[in-house]
Amino acid sequence: MKKFFQNLNRLVGVLYKVLPFFIGMYCYFPAFTQQDRMFPFLDAIYSSIKLYSGSTEDGIPIGGLLQLARFLALAATLSILIGALDKMNDLINWFKLLNPGATVVYGDSSYASRILESLNPRIRIQGGGKFIDNASRYVLMFSSDAENLEFYNRYYEWLKDKRVYIMLENILRQNIENPLITVFSISETCARQYWKTYPVSRSEKIAIIGFSHLGEDILLYGLQVNLIDPRQHFEYHIFGDGSRFRREHTELDKMEPDQVIFHDDGLYGPGDLWDFDRVILCGSQDENQDAAVMSRLLVSTPMDRPIHVYAPNGDIITNLFGRDRVVCFGTGEEAASADSIFNERSMEAARKQHEFYYRKYGGTPWEKLDSFKRYSNVSSSDYLGVIQRLLKQGASLETAAELEHIRWCRYHYIHNWKYAPETVPARRTHNCLIPFSQLSEEEKLKDVEAIRSKMDDEA
């Protein structure tokens, strides 16, 4: 039955295009015959073809049937032109698919167009209503998690062996075991980019106002990359409901020497933020609401300290309040660029780091790592920039190794691992979740060698 309707649809499409011609012949041939033309049949053919340009013959009465033919002919011409342009676009895409970096982007979110703009024109392909096969990468960026998952499921047979990047805000990438699938979220890429752009240089007291997905990622990435001294003391104050977050992250009290403090009611008085070094307004994407919160923050904080605000729609906030005290981050160009979503440099550094361990100490090759260990290496590679900066400032390899161990512990604590004398991954226990000073000399040496190998790779 399905094949019958497909054939019927093709037949209707053909009739729709040729019907104006036959109507034109029906109207023109008798009229030209009455005019005693030398070749009435050929003239009728020519005039019927002219209908597809919207033209009719002078001296021939235009009745309702001929008007209908002209209308249908113009519609058919438009359809043919659109089909021709579509075929031309298919041809252009075919040439792009010959490039080993060809990337197809599907989705109706505002971020989909932004990542297309950031890709090289020679490899970017905008996916439409049909599936484009044989690309090296596919990016799914619909407006909701459900739409992205439904698309992946619908085209699973074509995508199962392809490299796929899926935008999901409510599914953690560490839970995806398929190595060909990379889950990313806009809030996560914003958080990573924020700490790269505005790094810390000393211990700070930080207020995070608004604790949606972005606020959570700002905290999690901050805990992993804001490690500059084994004796530091950062305070992260969360103004927003963190009850669910604390239920999902049970080891937050293990973040020594730093501290995470929750203010679940989200309330703060005029003087409560006065001694904070950094205030981050994570925003609600409601510009009116963000502007109202910003106006209160400006009178609740010292005038010599900027307020960092998430502003995905550009600098509307700075247009209102000026640039002296307001620092905007998280624009679409930053959050949805090819560099931030594919994160290829960080992934490559993570792979090299693991290969160093694998060659020296054995274990599991990169291709067979579970997602938790894979992204543990990615967390380490994200921290590499901080290590490089500290070493240039005179820090020793031993200090860098201790900080890397703290970061490694924090990654595990964030994912609810605990210390136990015996390492049992199935129970999330590890015998190295202890202070660096308590590690064996062999384990300390591993961390020092890892730092040295990273520096050698970057040299």
C-alpha Rg, in Å? 31 Å
What summary fits the major beta sheet? 6 strands, parallel
Distance between the termini: 65 Å
In spatial order, strands of the major sheet run 8-7-6-9-10-11
Measured by DSSP, the beta-strand proportion falls in 5-15%
Q: Any low-confidence stretches, pLDDT <50, length ≥5? A: none
The oligomeric status of these chains comes to: single chain
Using the alpha-carbon principal axes, give the shape.
elongated
Separate helix tally: 18
What's the total count of β strands?
A: 13
Give helix % range: 40-55%
Q: Give the integer mean of the pLDDT values.
A: 87
Alpha-beta content class:
alpha/beta
Account of the 3D structure:
- By secondary structure, the chain is of the alpha/beta class.
- The strands form 3 sheets. Strands 8-7-6-9-10-11 form a 6-stranded parallel beta sheet, with helices on both faces. The chain has a 5-stranded parallel beta sheet with strand order 2-1-3-4-5, sandwiched between helices.
- Helix 1 packs across helix 3, helix 14 crosses helix 15 and helix 14 crosses helix 18.
- The protein starts with a helix and ends with a helix.
- The model has no long low-confidence stretch (mean pLDDT 87).
